[in-house]
Amino acid sequence: MDLETINSELVYDNGEEVSFTAKTDDANRILPAIEFRDVSLAFDDQIVLDSINFRVRRGETKIVLGGSGSGKSTIINLVLGLIKPDSGQIFVDGEDITGHDEPEMMLVRKKIGMVFQEGALFDSLSVYDNVAYRLHEEGVDEDEVEHEVRRMLHFVNLEDAIDKMPAELSGGMRRRVGIARALVGNPSIVLFDEPTAGLDPPTARTICELAIKLRDLEDVSSIFVTHEMNNWTTSHRNMLLWMKMARFCLSLRVKDCV
Question: For residues 57 and 35, what is the distance between their CA atoms, to the nearest angstrom?
Answer without folding.
Answer: 9
